[in-house]
Design a protein that fits this description.
By secondary structure, the protein is of the alpha/beta class. The chain has a domain of 189 residues: Rossmann fold. It has 18 helices and 14 strands. The chain has an 8-stranded mixed β-sheet with strand order 3-2-1-4-5-6-7-8, with helices on both faces. It has a 6-stranded parallel β-sheet with strand order 11-10-9-12-13-14. Helix 4 links the parallel strand 4 and strand 5. Helix 1 crosses helix 3 and helix 9 packs parallel to helix 12. It is globular and about 70 Å long. The structure holds uridine-5'-diphosphate-xylopyranose. The site of uridine-5'-diphosphate-xylopyranose has 20 residues, from helix 9. Uridine-5'-diphosphate-xylopyranose binds next to helix 9.
Length: 434
């Protein structure tokens, strides 16, 4: 099928390449000429495992192309909207400028029978508002939220755990068209849920609100563990055995960040307020606050570990990305901790396998070093803030001991073997661990 994908960021670029890889003819469209020329050369503008391979393959077959020219969308049967919905500069609500611009820009090129499938995360009610503008062209608007995780985006797009399609009242064709688009996943038995527009929009924000709440729940338990001497990682293991609870997303640490969870829970709160139901999701404010407090705690542990002051102490910060397998630093707890330690007068050196360029652009005041070992060399304290394998799994206390005389390690992701580090003579501090 011929498809267009409007917006070639994390979501759109992956979606375009993934759809080409399952046999569709896809044009990706974005206003950013630099991004389009990179993608047209087969260069992924961000780090995402597996993306360069499907980009190159798609371009080579001729089924995948990228352009800044919106008119190239004409002739496609389905038009995916994958533009960003960032947090507004002066508030919590989502900024819908790009969604509106994408839909308005697309309208002249729509034909009767086309489907416009929104994938961006939007406040509930957005699709119903956009729908008449699309319907006036004879096309239909459906909402098809995206649940991909950065780092697993290609797999999550080609082989999702569910597909959700919201359709307008009386629209009995769009869902079938999208079923055809996702034929390989549908054939595998992937659940395909057809809902109304509002439900589809809500599914996405509800899922992210739940995940954020789960993380903040265990981080709240970490706070209690800290004043009682309990160990939150054992607690998480124990409650996680209950299948109703489950162990995933019970990783206590410096909390969640990224381009989705923080902004989505804030936009959800703002939308609920507008709907007169602010109290229904008032707990999300608490979820946000617990999350932000964990960064304070990590910083406090560094200060305590260094006997009350970090001033002019060398601190090795392992990680800058908001999570491993990503170079994304949006709302990264790791980078926030680094910046604040720098603000306290510490001599901070940050390392990360993928995110240094992005981090340096936003925080040029920090010192960066791509080498893990050089970053650790001579450090008074080490803080692990993004659990890349080279920091969590591969860094042994014996090796670290050869690099520095400092013997303080703060495990911001509870990924290290506390006993091994202590046995090697290190002062180990976890999050919510004795
Ligand atoms: C998230 C959702 O998972 C995805 O479905 C949605 O489409 C977009 O938002 P993503 O932002 O890629 O995906 O990251 P995710 O893997 O969910 O992690 C979010 C943050 O939570 C990271 O900062 C991670 O470090 C943190 N996290 C995750 C924890 O602190 N503890 C955990 O147990 C799990």
């Amino acid at each position: 099928m011929r498809l267009s994908v409007i917006g070639c960021g994390y979501l759109g670029a992956v979606h375009a390449a993934a759809m080409a890889s399952i046999g569709h003819e896809v044009v990706g469209i974005d206003v950013d000429a630099r991004k389009i020329s990179a993608l047209s050369r087969g260069d992924a503008p961000f780090y995402e495992p597996g993306l360069p391979e499907i980009l190159t393959a798609g371009l080579a077959t001729g089924r995948l192309s990228f352009t800044t020219d919106m008119s190239q969308a004409s002739g496609a049967k389905v038009h995916f909207i994958g533009v960003g919905t960032p947090q507004q500069k002066d508030g919590y609500a989502a900024d819908l400028t790009y969604v509106n611009a994408a839909v308005d820009g697309l309208l002249p090129y729509l034909s009767p029978g086309d489907v416009v499938a929104g994938k961006s995360t939007v406040p509930v009610g957005t699709a119903a508002e956009l729908s008449p503008r699309v319907a006036a062209t004879g096309a239909a608007l459906a909402w098809n939220p995206e649940f991909l995780r950065e780092g697993f985006a290609v797999k999550d797009t080609i082989d999702p755990d569910r597909l959700v399609v919201g359709v307008a009242p009386g629209d009995d064709t769009s869902a079938d068209v999208l079923r055809e688009v996702y034929a390989p996943a549908v054939a595998k038995g992937t659940p395909f849920l057809v809902t109304d527009l509002a439900t589809a929009e809500l599914v996405k924000v509800a899922a992210n609100a739940f995940l954020a709440t789960k993380i903040s729940f265990i981080n709240a338990m970490a706070e209690i563990a800290e004043v009682t001497g309990a160990d939150v990682t054992q607690l998480a293991d124990a409650i996680g055995h209950d299948v109703r609870i489950g162990r995933r997303f019970l990783g206590a640490g410096i909390g969640f960040g990224g381009g989705c969870l923080p902004k989505d829970i804030r936009a959800f709160s703002a939308r609920a307020e507008e709907l007169g139901r602010g109290e229904s999701v008032a707990f999300l404010r608490e979820v946000d606050e617990i999350n932000l407090r964990r960064r304070d705690r990590a910083i406090q542990l560094v200060v305590d570990g260094l006997d009350g002051s970090v001033f002019e102490k060398k601190i090795a910060v392992l990680g800058a990305a908001f999570k491993p397998y990503s170079d994304d630093i949006r709302d990264s707890p790791a980078l926030d901790v680094a910046v604040r330690l720098h603000g306290l007068g510490a001599n901070v050196v940050v390392t990360d396998p993928e995110a240094i360029d992005n981090a340096r652009r936003v925080h040029p005041q920090l010192t960066y070093n791509p080498s893990r070992d050089d970053t650790i060399r001579g450090a008074d304290a080490i803080i692990l803030v993004t659990e890349w394998d080279e920091y969590r799994r591969d860094l042994t206390p014996d090796h670290a001991s050869t690099l520095t005389d400092g013997r303080v390690i703060i495990d911001g992701r509870n990924g290290l073997d506390a006993t091994a580090w202590r046995n090697a003579g290190w002062d180990y501090y976890g999050m919510g661990r004795p």
